[in-house]
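# step 3/5: fold
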Amino acid sequence: MRLTTKLGPAAVFAAASAMLMFATPLRAEDKIMDRLITVSATGYVTAEPDQVRLSSGVTAEANTAEAALSANTEKMKAVVAGLKESGIDAKDIQTSNFSVNPRYTSPRDGAPPVIDGYVVSNQVEILIRDPKSLGALLDKLVSLGANQINGLNFVVSKEETLKDDARKEAVANARRRAELLAKAAGADVGEVVSIAEEVGYGGPRPMGVARAAKMDAAPIESGSETLEARVTVTWKLK
């Protein structure tokens, strides 16, 4: 004799739901998350500047714009010619500013200011590839008629390559700190998950103690530049 049992709709639905629950794999959010540690660290390297960027030029005044321009042009031609005679390549001399502006005077009777002349300014940016020549070059610029000298910046031309050593040091410092923290928490550092460098971080900056570079003429301190690199590294913990 065979017994047959009929199940109602509710019982059939419950049984099917149970089978589906056991057959469905764990969702991604149900997975046990990896234990991670993230550390940021900085590396440093010191470099001596091998180039100088300098802004210099001539400002001339006269009663008319034509006279001011003529005086400025004459002196500026002498300045540029003198730079080239001093060994500065033409491609390292670039006009950075040129302006013609009215000059005003204020009458004593309280009347509005009136134009009594014009001021012409012409400036060039110079790339000096031998910092040792800077002192003599400054003296020559003044003797040639340059009455505007500013924007003196020392440059490390191989900054990007030299920063590689700072990057290596930054990663090593991050690893050392991660191992210290992990050990204190009773864990070990595993494989690297991600490495990121802070872009634009750590440009050249003068060191606290400058190296005096005495020139034959004007004394100039070129000092040393500290290049920095900062990274953020994430490891798995095991």
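# step 4/5: annotate
Residues 1-5, 9-24, 206-216 have pLDDT under 50 and may be disordered.
# step 5/5: archive (pending)
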